[in-house]
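Here is an idea for our session: we take a single protein and study its fold together. Which protein we use is up to you, so please pick one and set it down. Once you have written the record down, we can walk along the chain together:
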Amino acid sequence: MSQLDILRFRDASFLAPPLSLFTTNSSSSSGGSVATCATGKFHLDTFVAVCLFLTLLGLVLPLAGTLYVAARGWGSDHRASPAHGTPSAIYGSLPLRELERSEQSHRIRRMRCLAHLSLSGTPGRGKRFLGAADHALKCFSWQKNVPAIWTTKTPGSTCSALNGIRVLSLLWIMSGHTSQMTAWLSLDNVLEWKTRVLKNPLYLYSRSGPFYLGVDTFFLISGWLSARSLLKMHQTAEKGLTAKVILRYYFSRLIRLQPLHMYSVCLLVALFSLAPWGPVWEVPKFHLDNCRRAWWTNVLLLNNFLSVRNSCNGWTWYLANDFQFHLTTPAILLVHGKSKHVLVLLGAVLFLASFTVTALLTVAHGLPVPDPSEASENATALYFLEYYTKPYCRFGPFLVGLFLSIFMHQNHQANILKTKAQALLGWICSLSIMFAVVALAYTVDDTSVTPSAAAALYQALHRTLWAAAVGWVVFACQEGYGGLVNRLLSCGMWTFLAGISYACYLVHPTLIILYNGLQETLIHYTDTNMFYLFSGHCLLTFIAGLGLTLFIEKPCQELKRCLLGSTSAGPGTF
């Protein structure tokens, strides 16, 4: 076997992997083992059956609600017999131009729904149930949710540039994941891919570039919106920021995240259990087995601390971080209400603590900085376990968004930028920081045995600096100094895509893994093939994201409004 050492390139072997990698069962007869390819479907058990049921339920309820509202509208139309050419005013048959005029009637219906739920006494139970079922079905109906999705208008109090920033960040993440997940086990020329793509600035948009900064942009937006929404809830509350308001804020955020999050877990299990797998099945089975073991960490939003190595829907660590960050927002705003000087001191301490912990972890574990895939297997595991998924290392961008929102809120009537020279200086600093953060990702040396001070410093600061640079873009656009950038980021087409971006983020890795796992041969990397893969994944992701938003996300938001009323919680990150 020593002669086979020539079949190596650096640390990579050209030898075929052991047969055990491709087997699901083996029989030992006469002391030998027989390998069989894992073709067909994965094993169905109780967990898979429950996920299949919930997946189907999520499809059936909107269809039932749509038919129910259409039937009621049809019956009302026949009873009322409106004049020919006169649009009907029945819920479920409203034309788009009359939706705004119907908002008051919707609020009345929500009050009636709450009244049904609050009545006591045995004689009213049947009516209460029918009233609640009536309102729930209407919340799931397409007549209610399609107009809410299919819009290019942004609420007047929201920075419209956020839509473009959100969608472009999502596309960057999807491009990086397309390249990353395809290169795991699906390329037949992975060495050529590593040579051509990794460390090549021409592939900035893909795995070569720090596409993970798109997630930090999401944290920035999340922090900005969290402060804005809680400040509005504080203003409308009679007694200020009370415990009731804070609990309502937490519950609203939880309801915003979890229904679609958990449905995406059920969808992955359902799809991966029913798919007829071929030779390339290892990655899908890995994710399916992880969800069998660790689904409960997703329910608790602790999947960034528990079972990180074998997490269910590994990309949802972001949601756990996001919700944990939101837990800190009320405390920071309470300090803001007491003393501005203490708020500045608290912010400095939080930033410094996050920077220090990140730098120390980088030095202690010798963590890679720009590209974990080139590091050793142990270093890559430590990178994700000890640093990448931990909230105390990712807190900086959220804090930038939160403090920026507070600053813009308390100075919303004042023109902070007095001259164009100030705006120009801000744009120069912002673009310079963005360029430096991306360029240093290619130049910082983190491969030496001795931990590098430069690598630790870059690891500690680069995400927060990127968020600060993007935060300036938001600030300048809101202040009227965005120019062409603001016009591009505020384009109406981004509004629709931003409305389905949360569902797209959750579902796009599932579609990529599903496509790769269904291949009967390995994929040959070329720039053209990867571009077509990315284009196809984007199209399927937007279609699936639209479906998930229409079937799950919007109905759950309507149900939340029925329970909590109209809140200012906002759309969160997405």
